[in-house]
Write a structure and sequence with these properties.
By secondary structure, chain A is an alpha+beta fold. Helix content of chain A is 18%, strand content 43%.
């Protein structure tokens, strides 16, 4: 018997991503977000939901671009801080000691210390309610060599990203390997056939 | 020095959610999705991206509703299977042994064995490219008592959801606790002040 919890947000897990953008004087800003996700394969796109009151909201509309930098778990404290304070009155790069790098392909900065960087141009905005979705078309991904696994693609256990729960507001690290996508489930077909 | 990987999808982590929908004869179907995310706080909404060719795409448009059931890690094999085969020619509930339950609030079925269920009405669709986003307004969440933690909300370590990497196509379990959101980062402010 399941218990009803009402019209609330308990979807999990959520990613912990840091959005990079430039202000109206070219000052770099970053903001941690969790209301995000991949939303299209072709063109490759990700969606980031932001409230109108956020500096990042205005920045992206002005520059039509943003980046996503994915922090490893050792930056959990910094990532949380970047989601708490506003760039309107704080230079978050200065406080955290993280380094803004100007993207060579979009008009936005990324975080040097984070192992994966996704560079996006603004494709569309979708007003939903308190949040507006910014749909970014991925124009390049840059990764530290150290996190590349077989076939030259980033391996999640090397990236070691932060996992968030919007329900109990917690951060966790990655745990045990469970299997390969598009492969693990085939065992079920085999079991059924045999 | 970061290495450029091109306009590809290496965003991580992704959730592993199972979308429940009814077909045109009322037959329950389920499909595993990872191109998803929370997209608004008020009204509470989640976004699920689907290709037009999917049975779930037609089902949701017809019934204007869907559910999200969140599997625990012991169902990783079933979740992967549910993402590989199509409900057009397979009764995935029958093959997996999972149980469809008719929602009491939306016109869609959910998976009894999975600890969290999110019931949505279709608020909007957004065509992006190969994928269309289905924005669902959350009208209720139902959870097994066993996964509720302090304050009566689902605790992610009790839910023990599956974590997916679109980059290296792997599934992982949840690992070590890193800290509390909106709290861990305050240490950085304190360190800076002291």
């Amino acid at each position: 018997m399941k218990k009803s919890l009402g019209a609330t947000i308990h979807a999990m897990p959520s990613p912990v991503w840091v959005v990079g953008s430039y202000g109206n004087k070219g000052e770099p800003n970053m903001m941690t977000v969790a209301w995000v996700g991949i939303c299209c394969s072709s063109p490759p796109c990700i969606a980031v939901s932001l409230q109108k009151s956020r500096l990042t909201y205005a920045n992206i509309l002005e520059h039509k671009a943003f980046t996503i930098s994915i922090p490893s778990k050792q930056y959990a404290m910094e990532a949380d801080y970047i989601g708490i304070v506003s760039g309107k009155n704080t230079d978050k790069f200065s406080v955290t000691g993280l380094t803004p790098v100007k993207s060579n392909i979009v008009d936005a900065p990324y975080v040097k210390e984070f192992p994966i960087v996704i560079e996006c141009t603004l494709l569309n905005t979708v007003d939903i309610g308190l949040h507006t979705q910014f749909i970014g078309e991925i124009v390049d991904v840059k990764a530290d060599e150290e996190v590349l696994g077989e076939k030259g693609v980033p391996a999640i256990d090397k990236v070691d990203p932060i996992i968030c729960s919007a329900s109990d507001r917690t951060y966790y690290a990655l745990g045990e390997y469970l299997g390969q996508a598009y492969a693990l489930g085939l065992k079920l077909s085999e079991e059924k056939i045999s």
